[in-house]
Amino acid sequence: MTQFKSYISFVLLLIFGVHVQAQNPDKNRIKDISFDTIKFDIEKDAPFKPEMLTKEINALEGQLVRIRGYMLPSFQQSGIKKFVLVRDNMECCFGPGAALYDCVIIEMKGTSSAEFTVRPIAVEGVFKVSEFKGPDGNHLAIYHIDGRSAK
Hints:
Layout: H1 2-23, E1 31-33, H2 55-59, E2 64-71, E3 82-86, E4 103-108, E5 121-133, E6 139-150
Parallel strand pairs: 1-2, 4-6
Antiparallel strand pairs: 2-3, 2-5, 3-4, 5-6
């Protein structure tokens, strides 16, 4: 009987532990996302409002993520600490009027840095919603990643 109670206790602990882990995602585990993951409904040239973000996007706040995209050209070739990651390599429809959710400001932390490339790269780091406005007060970006690696 004691062995049976121990077994039941173990099973309940296992079930409860899995349930708690599912509710509290591991912030050290990398979550693969794409630019489609961070897309939301916004009319072209409409002002951004935080309530436009989906609950899935808000849930990414503070999470360790990996996203693939293209580095916007820079005057620097190596040791890059800050850059903009975009969905596309600009051979298509990007430039003025690109969607607000199609870019992420990447700021490499610590000793990490990036090398410029025209090929797609994967950036790993901590995702944040952080509004960045231009001198005219309009949003230029709303997403930010504290980068750990860019390859």
